[in-house]
Design a protein that fits this description.
With 64 residues, the chain is mostly helical. It has 4 helices and no strands.
């Protein structure tokens, strides 16, 4: 997953950077660095993104 694909994923799900950080269990700065291409997007994050895209109803509980 590229930084552009990661950003597109977040936008498709209607998430702010802050909410994406919350549901993925990372910091806001971590999201910003991934979207800027300054940090790699690890396998766990890719799998979580795919899962949440397939099961958006889980976003309500994610990060709690």
């Amino acid at each position: 997953m590229t930084s552009d694909e990661f950003k597109a994923w977040r936008k498709r799900l209607g998430l702010t950077q802050a909410r994406a950080a919350e549901v993925l269990g990372v910091t806001l700065r971590g999201i910003q660095k991934r979207e800027a291409g300054q940090s790699p997007i690890n396998r766990e994050a890719i799998m979580a993104c795919r899962y949440l895209e397939e099961h958006p109803e889980q976003l309500a509980a994610a990060g709690d």
